[in-house]
Amino acid sequence: MIGWDEILEGGLAPEATVMSWRGEDGGISAARQGHDVIMTPTSFCYFDYYQSTPKNEPKAIGAVLTLKKVYSFEPTPRELTRDQAKHILGAQGNVWTEYIPNEAHAEYMAIPRMLALAEVVWTPKSLRNWKDFRSRITAQFRKLDYLHVNYCKGSFKVDISTYFDKKLNSLQCRLESEQPDWPIVYTLDGNDPIAQSPVYSQPFENQ
Questions:
Q1: Counting Cβ atoms within 10 Å, is residue 110 exposed (0-12), middle (13-18) or buried (19+)?
Q2: 19 and 30 in contact (C-beta within 8 Å)?
Q3: Distance separating alpha carbons of residues 4 and 38, to the nearest angstrom
Q4: What are the phi and psi torsion angles at 172 (to 5°)?
Q5: Whole-model pTM?
Q6: Of 68, 8, 17, nearest to 44 (Cα)?
Q7: Pick the residue with more confidence: 25 or 169?
Q8: Using CA atoms, how far apart are residues 80 and 111, in angstroms rounded to an integer?
Q9: DSSP assignment of 10-75
Q10: Are residues 183 and 142 in the same domain?
Q11: Both 122 and 47 in a single domain?
């Protein structure tokens, strides 16, 4: 029997496997009781969540779950002992379809996040490397384009952050993307960037 972590509330049958979706606590509790566990917490494994800024994405159920955050998931909670950790069978990505009307939309929500989760569950933690993954995924995008897969390009979104540089005594602006091999163009005059706009190369003074 496999059940969502609510089954912990009524006492588990000896053979029950628990799907830990309301965070990791249910999985930790079940593993400590000697039950097998599939980790699928909403904060890392719910692919019906937005992948980027909601205003630029199709309507979804609520929270934002980026490609980078999926890749940061560690399915085996560190609170478990070595013997308890053996009960963590792996993880599962979920795509609930309340807001997904067709197959193309389902592809868009699952891909490329399912690539990140696949590497998380099939690769030892010591060998996982976000920078290496995001470099390699560029080749996967080319394959997906060739196959006409309707994948999300939300990881190309540019994130803007600021920090105070003590040496320069000024507030600096940093532009970053989950996809490092693509140029970022920007403007400082309030107009939308175009292909001929300056290409970002380093932080600049926030004006």
A1: buried
A2: no
A3: 9
A4: -105, 150
A5: 0.82
A6: 68
A7: 25
A8: 31
A9: G---TT-EEEE-SSSHHHHHHHHTT--EEE--HHHHBTTSBSS-GGGS---SS-B--HHHHHT--S
A10: no
A11: yes
Do 138 and 166 have their domain in common?
no
Task: Tell me the residue length of the chain.
Answer: 207
**Rounded to an integer, what distance in angstroms lies between the CA atom of residue 60 and that of residue 52?**
11
198 and 141 both lie in a single domain: no
What pLDDT, in 10s, does the model give residues 78-130?
999 999 999 999 999 999 999 999 999 999 999 999 999 999 999 999 999 99
Q: Are residues 165 and 114 in the same domain?
A: no
H-run or E-run covering 86: none
- The total of structural domains in the chain comes to 2
Share of the chain above pLDDT 70, in %: 100
Q: Residue with structure tokens 């540089």?
A: 165
Distance CA 201, CA 26 (A): 45
- Residue 58: count other Cβ atoms within 10 Å of its Cβ: 14
